[in-house]
Design brief:
This protein has a domain of 39 residues. Helices cover 13% and strands 28% of the residues. It contains 1 helix and 2 strands. It has a two-stranded antiparallel ribbon with strand order 1-2.
């Protein structure tokens, strides 16, 4: 899918973003279904941890904006 760096202000909560520039596939082309995203952290002491999270894609991303536009 892609990769990105994470940032933190308190070293407890981390955030990052994968958008069109970071993605290796066109995000709009993802079909409905379940996708497994692998999150990998590499610590300064060399320890590497990974976890898989299932993300469900359903409908077009534009339908999200149409929903909120009605409010």
């Amino acid at each position: 899918m892609g990769s990105t760096s994470l940032g933190s202000t308190d070293q407890k909560a981390w955030n990052g973003f994968i958008g069109a520039k970071q993605a290796q596939v066109k995000l709009e082309s993802l079909k409905d279904g379940d996708y497994i995203f692998t999150f990998k952290a590499t610590y300064s002491n060399g320890v590497v941890k990974e976890t898989d999270v299932t993300i469900q894609i359903k409908d077009s991303w534009t339908s999200f904006f149409e929903f909120h536009k009605g409010w």
